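We treat protein structure as text, and this decision shapes the records that our systems exchange. Because each token names a local backbone shape, the row as a whole describes the fold. An entry from our holdings is shown next, in its original layout:
>
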Amino acid sequence: MNMNKLRPEKYLKYLYLPNLFTAKRTKEILSVNPTVIPQREEAESVRIFVYDYNAERFEVNEFDSVRKIFSFKDNENTTWVNIDGLRKADVEAVCNHYDIHPLFIEDILSINQRPKLDETENTIFCLLNMLYYDDENFSVEQEQISIVLCKNTVISFQEDPRRDVFNTVREKLKMSNTKLRQGSAEYLCYTLLDTIVDHYFLVMEKLGGRIEDVEEVVARGHNPRAITDITNLRKELIILKRNFIPVREVVNGFIRSESDLLEDRYTKYYKDVYDHIIQAIDLLENYRDVIVSLQDLHINNVNLKMNEVMKVMAIVTCLLAPATVIGGIFGMNFENVPLLKDHWGFWIAMAFMLIIPLWMLRIFRSRGWF
């Protein structure tokens, strides 16, 4: 038998009891230490797309090397450089060519960063997360994206080359009569931010459906797994809160910025994104209130169930008390116990043991105790 195929270490870990109760999701959410710089793994594959366009023409190219995008820097068209998959050498080469500040390079290559907005004389840099909902694990997944706005150019750095939320943006770029094709690089930057924020609502919609399912389970009565589902939902809400509130500050930074890269005519568009993120935060608070109510309802159901059990046990104990007392009296070791040697003594005692509980039951019912 080949022991390498069995991989015994995979199963031996379960012999250690604490491993059966590990809270991996909690660790992922709470283990964020900004003083420790984690090492990012180099991406196995990198996809580089360049969307170069103006009102009359549109061109999309896919390259295997970042150096091939350098020729698009000085043209008069609007250019969107989308890099899927991060490698340190590629990021540094692109940033150095476009005069992006070294601190921005560190932020792009970092992980678990808080959404932020920074700007220099010739660039505006923002970092935030794209959110996805995992239907199998009922969890919210994050993908960090860094967006750099330069003159006539927007550069986006994504972690995962397999997915993003920008398909609608790509479709709009193909149509010549859209505002996106007519607009500048700033409008493209706004469109990317707006798409990311709008996708938050899709994630919240799926999470809201999950909350409804848990609510039905809790409303039907006591379910031992309900408290686990409620706890998991609260963890996912922490993920949303950690993203929504800083993104509000990011969008507000675009509105307040006095950079030459931002035109006043686009301020109203960023205000619209700001309104959307405020709505998302309000909806998040509603979700949180529902979760707290579900937890209270579940605890009340458990307490009610326990009270019902205790009430039944108390009634049974009370009904058996007369029989216990009567049996104890006639079981005493005295010779002169009344009716002890009487022919009908046993039946008289049994009658009292039955009549008294029935009389007690009638009193309990009349008082509404059950």
